[in-house]
TrEMBL record:
Protein name: Carbohydrate-binding protein SusD
Keywords noted in UniProt: Cell outer membrane, Membrane, Signal
Organism annotation: Anditalea andensis
The family this protein is said to belong to: Belongs to the SusD family.
Coiled-coil annotated spans: none
Keyword Membrane: yes
GO cellular component: cell outer membrane
Domain RagB/SusD: 284-545
Length: 551
């Protein structure tokens, strides 16, 4: 008998079926897993138990990673702008009907459902041959991913239902929300379990380990510190404690070249602490959703993808984002994240219409009064190029570039923020390590604002910016609204000083431009509303939240 669980009122069609099993090779995604709950008699040995947790690394996250991650994480955060793409998110008008909102909600609860079912099935059906070490390992993976999903849920929606048993939901028609304090307590409990039961070294390349969990714990404590309206020193100290343990003990190190972080060949590199793992041709192997599809939406044209995708010609960095960089040329993160006219990428092939293959030199598409320009700073990060740039491992709407959950630079800046008030010298050290790798000057002293801006630049287009604002909003909502409402999200022109080989660029707003540039942000539109379809299916979600019973 196969076990099928389904969120009747929370996330319909969250669970599918798993076809086949996988061997414990070095790369546990050699064969793309399917999103599912498996046979009750499946969990008979260590290999099968590890195979059951593999979908937690890709397919259950697909609907969020596909478009919602950059729609909510970057567009709402002011990083990404467009005149036609995800305008509700760009213009801070996300509603209960906004597609990316529904996709995010369903994906997060899909992760929760998959984790719950795997945990419950292992506890119920694990055979005698399953070692306690691997049993706890898989459960810890489930709790890590469940905790991560709930961190997104609580930061986007506030109070949400905490669900640990999918089967009960088959008869439950009274699902209600739980308080934000309860959700944060639940997240910390899940991640603490993961930290205590994952090994110091990953059992397979790409899998989570102890330092993945402790690093995420540090980030979660830093955000949780503000939920009372002021930053709790005990939580800040916990964030510093776990971050420093990862820094000192994980063996992770910054990649010397920032741009190399976003090349497929460097998946699971020395800086990676946790990442989603994708199989580029999963869609061709009856496992749609186990591939990374973001290049299809972000790449500016098909000439750099090799297929009919590359739909990102009207997507690019906001003016606010570009003006944060110390220098558009010398900050190495800029070119690795956004393409400006004339940028030269030796490792990406371009085949213009009617032309021949050549190294990518980003074209300037418009000209006025003898000056060439573009109106979008196209996205580069997670755009990896054509099949010939990736050993053939790219297809239409499919690459295998990892999606970062956590990397060491994040832990450095988490630690810096956590200790800034009590040990500013230590904070400065780790802050400057991130800047030095970026090729920009170190600073002699720093403030919270310096760290905030550094995080925006370091993690632009990694779906993180919005969560910097949700963290700030807990303890300083007015400052949050002020920063967001003053971001320039409108159209502008990017003029290179010359083509080819530009050395600088100018950003100008045409005198004739009348596009909206700034959008009001306040307590009424900061939080994302629960998707309307979910409210109609579970009306109790409208009721006041209640504390979760941890007993």
């Amino acid at each position: 008998m196969k076990i099928y669980n389904r969120f009747r009122h929370i996330a319909f069609s969250a669970l599918l079926t798993l076809g086949g099993t996988m061997g414990c090779s070095e790369d546990f995604l050699d064969r793309p897993p399917l999103d599912a709950i498996v046979d009750a008699n499946f969990y008979q040995n260590d290999e099968q138990v590890l195979s059951a947790s593999a979908p937690l690394y890709n397919i259950v996250w697909f609907t969020y990673n596909d478009k919602a991650s950059h729609g909510l994480g970057d567009a709402r955060g002011g990083i990404l702008t467009s005149g036609s793409y995800q305008l509700q998110n760009v213009r801070f008008n996300t509603t209960g009907e906004t597609p990316e909102n529904g996709e995010a909600w369903r994906s997060f609860y899909n992760v929760v459902a998959q984790a719950n079912s795997m945990i419950n099935n292992i506890n119920t059906f694990a055979g005698d041959a399953v070692t306690e070490r691997i049993k706890n390992h898989a459960i810890a993976e489930g709790r890590f991913m469940r905790g991560l999903a709930y961190s997104y849920l609580v930061q986007n929606y506030g109070a949400v239902p905490i669900i640990t048993n999918n089967t009960t939901l088959l008869q439950d028609t009274s699902i209600t929300r739980h308080t934000e304090e309860s959700v944060w307590q639940f997240i910390i409990k899940d991640l603490r379990f993961a930290a205590e039961h994952l090994p110091a070294q990953s059992v397979q390349r790409g899998r989570l380990n102890q330092w993945s969990a402790e690093g995420l714990l540090a980030k979660m404590y830093l955000t949780k510190a503000g939920i009372s309206g002021t930053r709790n020193r005990t939580d800040m100290d916990s964030a510093a404690y776990f971050a420093k343990r990862v820094i000192d003990n994980s063996g992770a190190s910054l990649m010397p070249n920032y741009e190399d972080l976003f090349k497929t060949a460097n998946n699971n590199n020395a800086e990676t602490l946790a990442a989603l793992q994708w199989t580029y041709n999963a869609g061709q192997s009856n496992a749609w959703g186990a591939q990374n599809s973001v290049q299809a939406f972000l790449a500016y044209g098909s000439e750099i993808t090799g297929f009919g995708d590359g739909w990102g010609g009207d997507i690019g960095a906001s003016k606010w984002m570009l003006e944060l960089y110390d220098d558009l040329t010398f900050d190495k993160r800029r070119k690795a994240t956004f393409m400006l006219p004339g940028d030269h990428y030796t490792y990406i092939t371009q085949v213009p219409a009617g032309g021949s293959a050549q190294q990518l030199r980003v074209p300037a598409q418009s000209e006025e009064a003898g000056r060439v320009y573009n109106t979008r700073a196209w996205v580069k990060k997670y755009v990896v190029g054509r099949p010939e740039d990736n050993d053939g491992r790219v297809v239409q709407q499919g690459t295998e570039i990892n999606t970062y959950i956590l990397r060491l630079a994040d832990v450095y800046l988490t630690y810096a923020e956590a200790v800034l008030d009590v040990n500013p010298g230590e904070a400065l050290t780790y802050y400057n390590l991130v800047r030095q790798r970026a090729g920009v000057n170190s600073k002699g002293s720093i403030t919270w604002e310096d760290i905030f801006h550094e995080r925006i630049m370091e993690f632009a287009m990694e779906g993180q910016a919005w969560y910097e604002f949700t963290k700030l909003h807990y303890y300083d909502p007015n400052r949050t609204y002020q920063i967001l409402a003053n971001q320039d999200r409108g159209t502008f022109r990017i003029y290179p000083d010359r083509i080819p080989n530009p050395t600088l660029w100018e950003l100008e707003i045409p005198a004739t431009d009348v596009t909206p540039r700034r959008f009001p942000v306040n307590s009424s539109n900061f939080r994302i509303p629960i998707p309307s379809v979910e409210l109609s299916r579970a009306p109790n979600l409208r009721k006041a939240p209640v504390p979760y019973n941890f007993n």
